[in-house]
Specification:
The chain is α+β, with helices and mostly antiparallel strands. It is built from five helices and five strands, in the order ββαβββαααα. Strands 2-1-5-3-4 form a five-stranded mixed beta sheet, with helices on both faces. Strand 3 and strand 4 form a beta hairpin. The protein is globular. It starts with a strand and ends with a helix.
Length: 152
């Protein structure tokens, strides 16, 4: 049994230690907000927070996150930064197809949790591991700036 703390709740999972966190979340816990994109940690669709840092759940074994705090898109609005980022996403109508957006939001929240006044370069660096096939990058950047203003 693997014991994980996800979104503030303790879970015991009957999975192999090398099971990717993504599959433990989606298949075992039915938390489907975190998406499968590439399976190689290249696209960012599977981004979650582990102890506040963005990580790729598709390449992170559950054994690596035992005893750590995991937050998924399902609970990102439990803290002010997450709530403000989601509000900015809605206000600026960022989403097109929406598939990558949970990973985009998780990366944006991690950025704004560390840096409340990011420059375009800061945003580009923080978001560089998140791909959007619909190319909503301009709206994503604008939403991050909007959220930063709201957090100021």
């Amino acid at each position: 049994m693997i014991k994980l703390t996800i979104n503030g709740k303790a879970h015991q999972l009957d999975v192999a230690p090398d099971t990717p966190l993504l599959w433990a979340l989606r298949d075992t816990l039915q938390m489907t907000g975190t998406k499968y994109g590439c399976g190689q940690a290249l696209c960012g669709a599977c981004t979650v927070h582990v102890d506040g840092e963005p990580v790729r759940a598709c390449s992170t074994p559950v054994s690596a996150v035992v005893g750590r705090k995991i937050r998924t898109i399902e609970a990102v609005d439990a803290e002010r930064v997450g709530k403000v980022v989601q509000e900015a996403w809605r206000k600026l109508d960022v989403v097109q197809c929406g598939y990558c957006q949970s990973g985009q939001i998780m990366s944006a929240v991690a950025l704004l949790s560390q840096n409340r006044k990011p420059t375009d370069a800061d945003i580009d660096t923080a978001m560089s591991g998140n791909l959007c096939r619909c190319a909503t990058y301009v709206r994503i950047r604008a939403a991050i700036h909007e959220a930063a203003k709201a957090l100021a």
